[in-house]
Write a structure and sequence with these properties.
Order of helices and strands: EHEHEHEHEHH
Largest sheet: 5 strands, parallel
Strand order of the largest sheet: 3-2-1-4-5
Structural class: alpha/beta
Radius of gyration: 16 Å
Helix content: 40-55%
Number of strands: 5
Length: 166
């Protein structure tokens, strides 16, 4: 990148409860398209997630480091994602889509975000190898004693099991 050249920053928002190999794949592929990726971990005080936000952030940072991805940072976002994007100068939001239901859920949010601030949303179709992985399914499998180690990055399965044993 030349001196003075603009840097494209993209925000990948979500609850990531827990962070899966599908999420990591979206980060990896987004990293190839933008100069900087910010994984924005949502903190919704109205929801009781399985893993506290601080643990999710720690696990995501470890997975990104293990994957050797540079120019990726992980931050907590307490409010509206569009406000966070404006604050850091993001040029876009990225969303991973596993199928049509995901698009239906995300399209209206993308349109509202664009109306509020003009920010665009980029949709990435899930890699077929990961399209079956959803955080809710991962938690359900773990709750019933199933093995989730092939669905999540290293360390995440242990954190999920620990949270479920409390």
């Amino acid at each position: 990148m030349a001196y003075g050249e603009a840097v494209s920053i993209v925000v990948y928002p979500g609850s990531f409860d827990p962070f899966t190999l599908g999420h990591l794949d979206v980060v990896r592929r987004t990293h190839a398209l933008f100069d900087e990726v910010v994984v924005a971990v949502a903190q919704n005080p109205d929801k009781n997630g399985l893993l506290p936000a601080a643990i999710r952030i720690e696990l995501i940072r470890a997975a990104i480091a293990e994957a050797g991805l540079t120019d990726v940072r992980v931050e907590a976002v307490p409010g509206l994602i569009v406000d966070f994007c404006a604050q850091i100068g993001a040029t876009a939001i990225v969303k991973g889509l596993r199928g049509g239901a995901d698009f239906d859920a995300e399209a209206s949010m993308a349109l509202m975000n664009r109306k509020l601030t003009g920010i665009e949303t980029v949709f990435l179709q899930a890699d077929p190898a990961f399209a079956h992985i959803a955080s809710s399914l991962v938690k359900d499998i773990a709750r019933h004693g199933g093995d989730i180690t092939d669905l999540v990055p290293a360390g995440v399965a242990d954190a999920v099991r620990a949270a479920l044993s409390r």
